[in-house]
């Protein structure tokens, strides 16, 4: 006897659609001589044991499970086949995807859970949805990951329906708590505009609103009584706010002969049997449990999962957005290439040589290939995230996670590519995208002080001061300054001769050569900073009016400085940036603040190099006979001297900025604390 394990987070005694459906499936499974078990997933060790002892797992709702993510990961990694039965939108933190109907709902999902459910759907032997609309909503987010599906109408027990030819015209019932999501406001408003009628609610009032006199509240009633009332009801209101996955109650009202006052957010009404074919609806609802168990038997018989075919010859455009946006799309392009027979990436003519050298796919001239599109099986346009021009570009892909999942633009591009093929793993791979090798014989760092939009640049004179400071700290390091045709003239801001500075004034190929060997990079919110990221060069990015957010530097080791944070509360757009006179978001960023970020990046990126201790340039010190008070921003640290030797060592380190050579005892404990508090940095010397 095969063991089928149902996992669900709510007791079946709860009189809701999901629990009623699970109960019916459970009973039919027992009738078919399966050993059907039900676990309410409240003990992880017990659940894991039951999974290991089962032939098939049916995963229902999990949002109320305290170990939901761990459970999903365990199920995905196990060798036990599973079916995912979805009743709501459990990948969504709210379980209702309100973000699709209310533009004010933003960043509403946990990215980890959102991506985990993509893997869950992709790995399932079958995904079960409650209606065509319910499936389409999931497909909009996950694409081909949910394509292996069964769509089941609500499993209404049609034998218990009690339609009556005599209809009560002056009373409209509402079953369940009167709340926002279920369309409670629509129901109350209708009652207010129809004072001649009665409106009976079998549940509690969950609305913060005065109720009209023609509305009454009663205790909830069992489903048998619900069906009796529906059988005599002339009109029934069903106008949910959220996209209702199914609407079992709506189905019961429809089959009971009620006139439906509904909107387009009821899943049941997306079946082709609505509104004119009750006989077809009854037949499909009766057959739904049988279809489920037929699918179970097919899975248990060992039917092999059909491997998704490759996409054939694919052309990818990235026609809109700045230079940096192209690099954000590179990981998604690599993902697409893995599931394509052949992939060509189209770029502007000036970028062909650069990307041909570094990208691991075939690069073609955008202007030329537009005349040859008939050679390709699939054409995808990444446009730009977010879609500033909407989706009016030919072949444009849509970004379903925009405003919903708070994450880097790179992941939004990957999530969109993952919709196109079942076998695309939406996990962001490691670094770098392009091959690089540090030039340790002639070590140097790279600076780009410009940007395509010059109002986003940190003041050029501050860049000059920073480079001069770095030349004092690292006199043996060269400095390569990327100098575009419209970038400010930084040479005029130096206060001394800078013979170690070299200017890169050529095209993207020259920029790439500079980045390939760089030890670290410092730049603005600009495309060159993302070129550095593509070579995984440790980076410091300086942001002003536009925050890093989805567009931050993405090198493995990076520091992002957002000068606006805590300094200016004005929300910037293009017009605000143009009219801003003080530019405090950028002008308030000091040279020492950037130097501190450089130390942080070097310390993390080069832990195994020969090192030296460097003071945080933003730290301030007050010395007395017995102690030293250290201030760093809002942080204060008091060092009390144990003896004169300790005082001498601390003063030597903090005042003269020299290492003492003491590597053990109390003083080592002090330096360890100072490093933990980022008052001291242990940075590479970059000397051979």
How large is the count of helical segments?
21
Overall SS class = alpha/beta
Task: Write the CATH fold name of the largest domain.
Answer: Rossmann fold
Number of domains: 5
Q: Main beta sheet: strand number and arrangement?
A: 6 strands, parallel
> What percentage of residues falls in helices of 4 or more residues?
25-40%
Radius of gyration: 32 Å
Describe what this molecule looks like in 3D:
With 688 residues, the protein is α/β, with parallel strands linked by helices. Helix content is 33%, strand content 17%. The protein folds into 5 domains: 3-151, Rossmann fold; 158-261, Rossmann fold (3-Layer(aba) Sandwich); 313-418, Rossmann fold (3-Layer(aba) Sandwich); 444-605, Glycogen Phosphorylase B (Rossmann fold, 3-Layer(aba) Sandwich); 611-684, Outer Surface Protein A, domain 3 (Alpha-Beta Complex). A 6-stranded parallel sheet has the order 2-1-3-4-5-6, sandwiched between helices. Strand 5, helix 5 (132-142) and strand 6 form a beta-alpha-beta unit. Helix 1 (17-31) crosses helix 9 (278-300), helix 3 runs parallel beside helix 4 and helix 10 (323-338) packs parallel to helix 13. It is elongated and about 100 Å long. The model has no long low-confidence stretch (mean pLDDT 91).
């Amino acid at each position: 006897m095969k063991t089928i394990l149902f996992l669900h987070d709510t007791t079946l005694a709860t009189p809701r659609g999901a629990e009623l459906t699970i109960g019916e499936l459970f009973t039919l499974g027992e009738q078919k001589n399966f050993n059907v078990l039900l676990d309410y997933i409240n003990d992880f060790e017990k659940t894991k044991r039951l999974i290991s002892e089962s032939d098939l797992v049916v995963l229902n709702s999990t949002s109320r499970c305290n170990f939901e993510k761990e459970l999903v990961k365990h199920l995905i990694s196990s060798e036990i086949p599973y079916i995912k039965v979805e009743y709501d939108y459990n990948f969504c933190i709210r379980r209702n995807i309100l973000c699709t109907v209310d533009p004010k709902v933003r960043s509403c999902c946990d990215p980890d859970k959102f991506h985990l459910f993509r893997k869950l759907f992709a790995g399932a032997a079958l995904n079960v949805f409650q209606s065509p609309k319910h499936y389409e909503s999931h497909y909009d987010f996950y694409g081909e990951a949910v394509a292996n599906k069964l769509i089941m109408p609500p499993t209404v027990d049609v034998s218990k329906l009690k339609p009556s030819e005599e209809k009560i015209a002056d009373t409209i019932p509402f079953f369940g708590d009167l709340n926002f999501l279920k369309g409670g406001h629509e129901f109350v408003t209708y009652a207010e505009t129809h004072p001649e009628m009665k409106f009976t609610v079998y549940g509690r009032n969950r609305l913060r609103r005065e109720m009209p006199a023609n509305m009454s509240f009663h205790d909830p009633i069992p489903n048998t009584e619900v069906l009796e009332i529906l059988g005599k009801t002339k009109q029934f209101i069903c106008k949910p706010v959220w996209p209702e996955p199914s609407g079992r109650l709506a189905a019961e009202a429809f089959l009971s002969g009620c006139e439906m006052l509904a909107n387009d957010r009821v899943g049941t009404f997306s079946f082709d049997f609505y509104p004119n074919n009750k006989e077809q609806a009854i037949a499909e609802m009766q057959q739904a449990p049988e279809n489920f168990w037929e699918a179970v038997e097919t899975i248990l018989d060992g039917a092999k999962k059909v491997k998704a075919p490759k996409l054939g010859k694919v052309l990818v455009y990235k026609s809109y957005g700045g230079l940096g946006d192209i690099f954000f799309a590179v990981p998604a392009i690599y993902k697409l290439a893995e599931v394509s027979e052949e992939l060509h990436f189209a770029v502007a003519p000036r970028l062909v040589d650069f990307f041909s050298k570094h990208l691991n796919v075939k690069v073609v001239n955008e202007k030329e290939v537009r005349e040859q599109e008939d050679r390709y099986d699939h054409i995808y346009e990444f446009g730009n995230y977010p879609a500033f021009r909407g989706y009016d570009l030919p072949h444009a892909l849509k970004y379903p996670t925009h405003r919903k999942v708070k994450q880097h633009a790179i992941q939004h591009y990957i999530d969109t590519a993952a919709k196109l093929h079942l076998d695309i793993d939406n996990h962001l791979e490691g670094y770098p995208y392009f091959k690089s090798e540090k030039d340790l014989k002639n070590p140097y760092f790279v600076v780009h002080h410009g940007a395509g939009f010059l109002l986003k640049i940190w003041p050029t004179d501050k860049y000059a001061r920073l480079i001069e400071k770095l030349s004092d700290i690292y006199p043996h390091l060269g400095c390569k300054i990327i100098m575009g045709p419209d970038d400010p003239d930084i040479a005029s801001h130096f206060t001394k001769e800078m013979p170690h500075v070299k200017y890169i004034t050529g095209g993207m190929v020259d920029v790439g050569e500079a980045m390939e060997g760089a030890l670290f990079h410092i730049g603005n919110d600009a495309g060159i900073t993302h070129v550095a990221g593509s070579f995984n060069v440790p980076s410091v990015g300086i942001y002003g009016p536009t925050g890093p957010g989805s567009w931050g530097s993405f090198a493995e080791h990076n520091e992002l400085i957002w000068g606006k944070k805590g300094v200016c509360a004005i929300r910037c757009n293009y017009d605000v940036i143009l009219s801003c006179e003080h530019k405090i978001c950028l002008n308030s960023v000091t040279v020492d603040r950037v130097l501190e970020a450089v130390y942080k990046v070097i310390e993390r990126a080069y832990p195994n190099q020969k090192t030296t201790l460097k003071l945080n340039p933003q730290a301030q010190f007050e010395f007395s006979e017995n102690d030293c008070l250290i201030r760093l921003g809002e942080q204060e640290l008091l060092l009390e001297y144990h003896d004169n030797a300790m005082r001498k060592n601390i003063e030597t380190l903090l005042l003269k900025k020299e290492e003492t050579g003491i590597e053990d005892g109390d003083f080592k404990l002090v330096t360890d604390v100072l490093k933990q508090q980022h008052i001291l940095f242990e940075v590479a010397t970059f000397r051979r």
